[in-house]
Description:
Layout: E1 13-15, E2 18-24, E3 27-33, E4 36-41, E5 46-50, E6 56-61, E7 75-80, E8 86-90, E9 95-99, E10 104-109, E11 118-123, E12 129-133, E13 150-152, E14 158-160, E15 170-175, E16 181-186, E17 191-197, E18 203-211, E19 219-221, E20 227-231, E21 236-240, E22 246-251, E23 258-265, E24 271-277, H1 283-289, E25 292-298
Parallel strand pairs: 1-22
Antiparallel strand pairs: 2-25, 3-4, 4-5, 5-6, 7-8, 8-9, 9-10, 11-12, 12-13, 13-14, 15-16, 16-17, 17-18, 19-20, 20-21, 21-22, 23-24, 24-25
Amino acid sequence: MTDTAVDPFASALDITPHELSRGYTWAECPRWHEGALWFSDMYAHRIVRLDEDGTPHTALDLSTRTSENGVETIPGGFGWLPDGRLIVTSMHERLVLAFDGEHVTEHADLRALATGPINDMVVDADGRAYVTQLGFELFQGEEPRDAALLVVEPDGTARALTELGGFSGANGIAVSSDGSRLVTAEAFANRLTILDRDEAGRLSGRRVFATTSSLPDGICLDDDGGVWAGMPSVPAVARFVEGGAVTDIVRFAPESALPPACVLGGPDRRTLYICAGLDVLDWGESRRNRRGTIWTAPVRVSGGANRP
Length: 308
């Protein structure tokens, strides 16, 4: 008798996605804000806001920025401060930048804290930002190593949360609607990790929310306690509940779209917006081919006030 692989998604509800927009380099870190989808068009050095019909508008253009260390300004995760300013990670500069609608300034310098490119970010209701980092130079072929989560306070002061231990390629990160939980995807450990969060933003109680069958990337939360995770190697977006069961799956053809990230949006936040692409590791190919896409899928639960 031979063993057969168990399909971890066999009992999940299959949801069919629909393409909304295309023509991006590598679309990442989607956000629902003020009635519209926003995302990083990473290798085009910009943040995009998308109209309902899929028409893109450049909300922040970083293509002419002179970086602090000579590398390209690649935007990653982003969010908004209580005063309305947009803040965004400049991954390879290891800075958090702020944009007031006219000028780009430095909000936080993480170069002394980050051990590799910084990555995604979630901003809480007080303007406190939790930043993930790869921990090593992935694009230069270094071997993976664990690294701390970073926190940037509303005034721009920052520290590494070393008391929580190292995280294995922490990627997507989200805060629950009541602020009591933070979840991050440990990409190189194939797991979703949850922490408790108190009223002052302190994190504790680190534990495994779910083990995944392959690398989890960007994530979002829903009001029923589910975590939606982009899984580009499947390729799919899957909804996990605590303990690891998969309840919903949005599948893609591998030759057309590898989905790294998702967010719940729409008027009732029951539309799953999905970023996808094909050329993440080759910046030049990404810019030449522009095979980045945005997809939508209807879901059964709302994103509520979860962040992002």
